[in-house]
Amino acid sequence: MAVAVIVFSALLTEQASSQDAAHLPAIRPPLSFYGPPGVIDMPSAVMQPDGQASVNIAARDGFWRTTLGFQFAPWLYASYQYSFTKGLVGVDGSGDLYDRGFNLALRLMEEGEIWPSLVLGLNDIAGTGVFASEYLVASKTIQNRFRLTAGIGWGRLGSYNGFNNPLSQLSDSFKEREADTGQGGDFNAGDWFGGPAAFFGGIEWQASEKLTLSAEYSSDAYEREEANTDFEHRSPFNFGLNYRLRPGIDLGLYSLYGSELGIRLSFSANPKSPPFRGGREPAPPPVAVRGNGNVDLAAWGLPSDKLAGRDPTEIRERVDAAFRSQGLELEGFELGATSVRVGFRNKTYDSVPQAIGRASRVLAAILPEAVESFELQPVEFGRPMSLVTVERSDLERLEFAPDRVWSSYVRADIEDAGDAPGFAEFASQAYPDGNFEVRPYIATVFFDPDAPVRADIGLDFGAQYSPTPGLVFSGIYRAKLAGNRAESTRDSTSVLPRVRSDLNLYDKEGSSYLSHLTAEYFFRPGANLFGRTTIGYLERMYGGASAELLWNPISGPLALGVDVNYARQRDFDGGLGFQDYDVITGHASAYYDFGEGYFAQVDAGRYLAEDWGATLTISRDFANGVRVGAFATRTDVSFEDFGEGSFDKGIFFEIPFSWLGGEPSRAGYSSVLRPVLRDGGARLVVRNRLHDVVKDYRDPELRQRWAGFWR
Q1: What is a single Pfam family found in this protein's UniProt entry (predicted)?
Q2: Average pLDDT over residues 70-78
Q3: 296, 176, 348: which is closest to 356 by C-alpha?
Q4: How far apart are CA 247 and CA 242, in angstroms?
């Protein structure tokens, strides 16, 4: 699904924003046959535009590789690759190798007028080690048409015409390199930059706006392939061309090692450049300026005159109807002489500031002119998330100001709503509240060696009912229509309690199943505090009870939380029955916002297999809601007991439908990609974890997305 999203985006978007393009050399930074940016099979010291995501598909006879890449920061490129080599024995003893691994490239120096760019790279980290290598490479652009690249490599990149490792002068530990890859999945940091070294280099020439020609000298001898497959390494020289079919889509053709022909197709998209710039939702109503009776707001379903002297109940009903016309639902309303306090649900906009801005415009159109302060309380699950006060005069003065985004943000007063009094009366249609929906689903499983991609498609039948603020009953039944997930034959060999590795048995015996059926209660125990309790069928594999408490200051970078759960494993058929295995699990969590969209999260505690450890998650969140990140978990389970992969790790992404389609929506698509699903470090999946519910309403996120206030 990640491939489909990036391909779709590449078909609809330009390659990069003009701001990014202005900082790039004229010769484009193509992706390599190996996957990350490079010449052909060798790496280069060139970075992609900041935030760029890519899918790179390369193939030659008996081999293919798919690489998902992401420019996590201007100086850091990360990628995840999955490859197939026919006849190359894998770690499980099979005759073909399905291999997974991570790559990192760290820019040490940016290219200048005289100095080249300099990059330090690691390939096949935490994989089997079959493709493991390290390198230091420099690249220099000449006259905006030529790029020269030269570097030194270790591991696979030190296997052709290698020489004694110069780093052995620092320590004898650099002289040798361990050949055994074991279970795979370990970082094997002791091997980094070890063993023989070799030089590599290349040249690229941008012959036209679309065509780039390249040649390189490779330091990879392909020793393992020559020894075990039909591959022949006749020459260290590779030649290729890269043709840009359209912005975001490149085609590469190659002559490799004097014996092979290769082909590569890449798709690139940038979260900073959505397919539909500016959005396709209806324009907001203009701000109704007091004293100006010429604004006709009938097209937005709003009155063209202020409701001065009207009954407060009538005013509330008019506000309720106007909110619904803007995709909002009124929960509470208290009108004073010069201020109004409003609680509302946002069911339409993925940007909270956009919902706040729409609510402000409605109030400016309806309320008597004496009302100056709009106190807005966005509500989730019946509980206020924050309190944003907007002055009416600021709305009137800043609507057309050049600096309206920043000026309106600094003039808004953003506070926590934990101590705010409850509303004396709720809007007539606020509670009880319920809905029923039917929507399609696709459930994928990647990296099963028998079939690298398996998927089921079907329909989700979901219902939700909230009789009173904070209390939510909900459930989803998932009905499979077609798919091949049940065809997996790889049974678990885990020596740990099989808390996740029996997933294929759930696919076989319960292809249609009760996804969840829960009762949840949300509460605010105090300022900056949030609470949740959940009981029922929590997820596909477990039922039980969960409790969570979160401390999240309105404006600080740090949030802390704790959760405790009792979980019992459900029957494989996905019905109402349970198996014998149960466990108490829980974690203490810390969340930190580094600014500019970079986040870190640490969860430490007890996991489903009764192992103890911690998970580190690093992510980048864009102002339009796109999120990309990676995680790794280490527990007291040994690498041997964990099995293939050594420890739990993976990457994830979240893409709002509003980014893909340009229309407001709070829905989206998210996915987690793991090299292998095992039992160590497995965590219970509980819906509506508090930090995910709360963070969009706190000041760091509101500031990042405040441009939506005027949309």
Answers
A1: YjbH
A2: 95
A3: 348
A4: 13
Q: What is the pLDDT of residues 18-57, one digit of tens each?
A: 334 334 445 777 899 998 999 999 999 999 999 999 999 9
Q: Check: CB of residue 200 under 8 Å from CB of residue 157.
A: yes
Contact 644, 676 (CB under 8 A): yes
Specify the pLDDT at position 323: 92
Top pLDDT among 302 and 697 is at 697
Pick the closest to residue 683 from 628, 627, 611, 575 (CA basis). Answer: 611
Q: Are 149 and 29 in contact, with CB atoms under 8 Å apart? A: no
Residue 76 Ramachandran class (φ > 0 left, ψ -120 to 50 alpha, else beta): beta
State the Cα–Cα distance between residues 153 and 165, nearest whole angstrom. Answer: 10
232, pLDDT greater than 60? yes
Number of helices and strands in the chain (H, E):
12, 31
Helix or strand (DSSP H, E) at 608: none
Strand residue runs (E) in 488-597: 513-526, 529-537, 542-551, 558-570, 578-595
pLDDT at 363 over 90: yes
Distance CA 547, CA 645 (A): 31
How much of the chain is in helix, strand and coil states, percent to nearest 5?
15, 45, 40
The four Cα atoms 363, 366, 371, 373 give a dihedral, to 10 degrees, of 0
Nearest residue to 450 via CA among 510, 491, 413: 491
Pairing mode of beta strands 260-269, 328-335: unpaired
Distance of CA 61 to the CA centre of its chain: 34
pLDDT band at 471 (very low <50, low <70, confident <90, very high): very high
Q: Cα torsion for 313, 317, 322, 327, to the nearest 10°?
A: 120
* Strands 373-380 and 339-346, sheet pairing: parallel
- CA distance linking residue 34 with residue 123, whole number of Å: 10
The answer to whether the beta carbons of residues 164 and 157 sit under 8 Å apart is no
* 94: pLDDT strictly greater than 70: no
At CA 310, angle to CA 304 and CA 312, rounded to 5? 115
Closest CA to 452 of 54, 81, 82: 82
Structural tokens at position 466: 């909230």
Residue 424 pLDDT = 58
Tokens (6 digits) for 632: 């790794």
d(CA 528, CA 469): 18
CB 409 within 8 A of CB 623: no
Detail the DSSP E strand segments found in 381-432: 383-384, 387-391, 413-415
- Does residue 703 sit in helix, strand or coil? helix
Alpha helices in 209-250 (DSSP H): 223-228
Q: Are strands 63-73 and 328-335 parallel, antiparallel or unpaired?
A: unpaired
Q: Is the peptide bond before 25 cis (omega within 30 degrees of 0)?
A: no
Helix axes 312-325, 352-366, angle to 10 degrees: 140
Q: In the structure, what pLDDT confidence band is assigned to residue 9 with cuts at 50, 70 and 90?
A: low
Which structure tokens are listed for 92?
């499980």
Cα separations in angstroms, 692 against 26, 301, 417, 535, 601: 41, 34, 18, 19, 12
CA–CA dist 221, 441 (Å, integer) = 45
The whole-number pLDDT of residue 98 equals 84
- Average pLDDT over every residue of 8-20: 47
- Length of the chain as a residue count: 711
330-339 pLDDT, tens digit per residue, is 998 988 889 9
Residue 313, classed as helix, strand or coil, is helix
Q: Domains of the chain (ranges plus CATH)?
A: 2-269 (2.40.160.40), 298-430 (3.30.300), 433-701 (no CATH)
Q: 503 — phi, psi (to 5°)?
A: -55, -35
Is residue 395 a contact partner of residue 702, using CB atoms and an 8 Å limit?
no
